[in-house]
Amino acid sequence: MISGTKTETVVAGAYEIGNRLIGRNPFEIERLFQEMHRSFFRGGPINGTIVSGIEMALWDIKGKAFGVPVYELLGGAAREKIKVYSWIGGDRPSEVLEPAQDRFDRGFTAIKMNATSELHYIDSYEKVEEVVERVASIHERFGSKLAIGVDFHGRVHKPMAKVLAKALEPYHPMFLEEVVLPENEEHFKEVADSVAVPLATGERLYTRWQFKNIFNQGAIDVIQPDVALCGGILETKKIAAMAEGYDIAVAPHAPYGPIALAATLQVDSCTPNVFIQEQSLGIHYNKGFDLLDFVKNKDIFQYKDGFVDLPSKPGLGLEMDEAKIEEIAQEGLVWTNPQWRNYDGTIAEW
Predict the structure, then answer these.
(1) Which of 14, 181, 227, 311 has its CA 20 to 30 A from that of 63?
(2) Which pLDDT does position 3 carry in this prediction?
(3) What is the pLDDT, as a whole number, of residue 5?
(4) CATH of 76-311, one of 3.30.1320.10, 3.40.50.410, 3.40.50.2300, 3.20.20.120
(5) Strand runs (DSSP E) across the chain, as ranges?
(6) pLDDT of 94
């Protein structure tokens, strides 16, 4: 689940909120979303994950009842196919050139990689040079034929964010992601003013209200709402529509399992300012199983020349392997993100 270290809390909350919906009309998705969202204490990653999961299930029910993909109920297709990018490297990226070559040979025209590992408030230029060398090696081999998204992952504080962004500018990144943490959003403008590179953020934000400051500030060029966190399919669609009014692109966050990705592809299909989609096949976070392991109709995530077809089956378009899910569930899926420390023992951002 999105909440990472709060998996059991999310499950308990899903029962608590879900029980209130038993017997209700599942077609009234907007009304049910408003009821789930509008508590006295609203939002947050735990509640956002719960509401998003239930909301996606409601759309799956409605789409299957009408025999159409969800995007047909949200205005219909806005495109013929969806461009995707592939991750390379890992949490602490080192060798990236050969994985980049592998993705290029498989038809991808865009990749993404983590920029750096632990980085202190002020850190050594040696670490900056290591990042630049990795990106430069890819750019020198492929030129503009392979776009590179560089994810700062909120690991970089403002002083080093400016340095790192400026150092990467000559290699024309597709975007720089989360150059600072969203709670330091006032610094996005400072970085944006220093480089001619698109900046991206949004994976940790939930509902359209948390995106308001981003839109009004005008420093971010690409928003990355997560359909499994921000409130679900319709909320992602609303956030993207707000972004369109500000001439901002959308590249939804989706490094998780098949349900979240399938739901995101529904939004992509009917949203014109989506320009590329993250996908998690083979991503370094997957340990022991991968995206396709839980899906019977594996063709839904077949990529060709860096694109995926629009979904065609009703609802979210998935046929889940319930036996496999039950088997894995017995192991207990309680994931905790790594705990990192800087060279002096202080806590580092992961």
Answers:
(1) 14
(2) 43
(3) 67
(4) 3.20.20.120
(5) 81-87, 110-114, 147-151, 175-177, 199-201, 222-223, 249-250, 277-278, 303-304, 307-309, 340-341, 347-348
(6) 84
How far is Cα 95 from Cα 209, in angstroms, rounded to an integer? 39
Query: What was the pLDDT predicted at 328?
Result: 82
Q: Is 139 within 8 Å of 96 (Cβ atoms)?
A: no
- Which amino acid type is present at position 274? V
- Per-block mean pLDDT, blocks of 10 residues, the chain (350 long): 69 94 97 95 92 98 98 98 94 90 96 95 96 97 97 96 98 98 96 98 96 97 98 98 98 93 98 95 62 87 94 96 87 80 95
SS3 call for 280: coil
Helix (H) or strand (E) holding 228: none
Catalytic residues: 153, 253
Query: Taking CA 196 as the corner, what is the angle to CA 192 and CA 200, rounded to the nearest 5 degrees?
Result: 55
DSSP E strand boundaries for 226-287: 249-250, 277-278
**Distance of alpha carbon 221 from alpha carbon 247, whole angstroms:** 8
> With the C-alpha atoms ordered 321, 326, 330, 334, is the resulting torsion angle positive or negative?
positive
What does the block give as tokens for 91? 């949490």
Q: At what angle do helices 258-269 and 233-245 cross, to 10 degrees?
A: 40
CA atoms of 171 and 143, how far apart (whole Å) = 9
